[in-house]
Amino acid sequence: MTEVLAAGADLDTGADETETAAVAGTPAVDEKTAGADATADTAAVSTLPENWRALIAGEDKSLLKTLERIKDPADVGKKIAELNKLAGQKGAAPKKPGEGATAEEVAAYREAVGLPPKADAYLEKLALPDGRVLGDEDKAIAANFAESVFGADYSQAQFDKAIDWYLSHVETSHAEMIENDEAFKDESRKALKEEMGPHYQRNLRAVGLLFQEAPDGLWDAVQKARTPDGRLLGNDAGFIRWASKLGLELHPAASVMPAGATDGKALDSEIAELRKLAGDKTSDYWVGPTATAKQARYLELLSAKERLTAKR
C-alpha cells in the first residue's frame, strides 16, 4: 500500500506541473511558443552551409581555429565587437598632460608618444637629405623654430621635413635673386652706355673716386643695399648718375684725365703741352685733321683746371 501511494504522488505531481512551477515562482513555459522559436533558429542556421567557418576564414588557419570554438554564427558579430573593444583599449594614445602638469609627467608623455624630450633635441637629431647641413645663420633660425614647435608636439620627422623645405626655399630664392640682380645690372648698364656715350667709363671712375673718400665699409654697404623694390642700389642707373656727377664735382681732373690721374699734375702737364703747340701757328694744333680735337681738348682741360682751383 505504501508503494502505491508513493507512485500515485509522483503521478499527481507530473499531472499538475504547471501549477507546481507557478508556486515555485518560475514562469510557465508555453510549449507551442518554445517550439516555434526553436524551429525559427534552426531555419536561420540551416540557411548557412555546413562549412561556413571555412568560408569566412579562407586560408587563415588561426582564424578557422577561433571560429571552430563558436557554435552559433550569430556569436561571430559579438566576438568581433569584443575584439575591437580590446584593440581600442590597447592602442589608445596616452592622454596629453593638461595645464599644471609636472615636468616629469610631460617628459613621460613625450617619451610615450615618441616626441623629442626638449627643443634642443630637434637639432641634435636633425637628419637632412642629400648631405645638407645648416649654416650658422640657418642654425639660429632652426633653433628658434624648434622652440616654437616644441609645445605644438612636432615629431622629429615633421621638424626635419620643415627644415628641409626651408633650406630648399632659401636656395631657390637666392638663385632667383642672383639672376634678377644680373638682369637689372645689364639693363642699367645698357641704358647708361647709351646715355653717357664715350664718358661712361669716366663717370664710373668718378663714382669710385667719390667713395674712396667715404668711411671704411660704406661702399660695400651701398653695393649690398637694396631699393624698396628689391633691386641692388649699386646697379641702379639713377644712383650711378647722381654719384658720378658728385664725384666729378669733387674731382674735376677725373672728368678729363685718364684713370689714376686725379691730383691735377697730369692735368697741368697736358695743358702745358697743348699751350706750347698753340704758340706755333704751323703745329697740328692749328693745322691738320687733329686740329679741331686738340683745340677742344685744350678748352676742356682749362675748364677742369678752373673747377679744380675753385675746389681748393
Topology:
Blueprint: H1 2-15, H2 17-24, H3 31-46, H4 52-57, H5 61-68, H6 74-91, H7 103-112, H8 119-124, H9 136-150, H10 156-196, H11 200-212, H12 218-224, H13 237-250, H14 265-278, H15 291-311
Helix pairs in contact: 11-13, 14-15
Sequence of secondary-structure elements: HHHHHHHHHHHHHHH
Which structural category do the helix and sheet elements fall into? mainly alpha
Distance between the termini: 163 Å
- What is the number of beta strands? 0
Q: What is the radius of gyration computed over CA atoms, rounded to a whole number of angstroms? A: 51 Å
Strand content: under 5%
Shape: rod-shaped
Number of domains: 3
Largest sheet: number of strands, sense, barrel closure: none
Average of per-residue pLDDT values? 81
> What helical percentage do the residues reach?
55-70%
Key structural traits:
312 residues, mainly alpha, rod-shaped, disordered N terminus
Task: Provide a quick synopsis of the model.
This protein is mostly helical. Helices cover 68% and strands 0% of the residues.
Would you kindly provide a written description of the structure presented here, covering whatever features stand out?
This protein folds into three domains: 28-91, no CATH class; 123-250, no CATH class; 263-312. The protein is 68% helix and 0% strand. It is rod-shaped, with a radius of gyration of 51 Å. The protein contains 15 helices and no strands. Mean pLDDT is 81; it is low at 1-29. The chain has 312 residues and is mainly α. The relative contact order is 0.04. Helix 11 packs across helix 13 and helix 14 crosses helix 15.
